[in-house]
Amino acid sequence: MNIPSNEKTKKSINFGLLSLMPEGATLVNTARKEVVDEDGLLALFNERNDFKYISDIAPDCKSEIESKYEGRYFFTPKKMGAQTAEANINAGIAAATQIVNFLEKGDITFKVN
């Protein structure tokens, strides 16, 4: 899943939704950790031995998952959030600003070679 974190999506991935996942399912979270209801996540881990969770950011309940559910989770050491639409838009705006600053002011701060 990859959804933004806002008032509508925070904790929207809850136990009710997670429990609908098929046997042997793995939830892959590349969104924000706030969209997953951690109480529901822990409840599903506890209820279903077949469930696995992969995320590019560790949840607040990381230590509990690590101590109880070995081999059923993976958290990357670095957030992959730079690959979001928001990050790409911001990178585009920054690049355009640098080009304008070069053309209008001769600013070569970000010159590569």
Q: Could you characterize the architecture of this molecule?
A:
The chain has 113 residues and is an alpha/beta fold. It folds into 2 domains: 1-78, NAD(P)-binding Rossmann-like Domain (Rossmann fold, 3-Layer(aba) Sandwich); 80-113. 37% of the residues lie in helices and 10% in strands. The chain has helices at 15-18, 38-47, 62-68, 85-105; strands at 26-29, 52-55, 73-75. It has a 3-stranded parallel β-sheet, with no helix packed on it. β1, α2 and β2 form a beta-alpha-beta unit. The mean pLDDT is 89.
Which features would summarize this protein structure in a list?
113 residues; alpha/beta; Rossmann fold; three-stranded parallel sheet; 3 strands; 37% helix
What's a concise summary of this model?
It is built from 4 helices and 3 strands. With 113 residues, it is α/β, with parallel strands linked by helices.
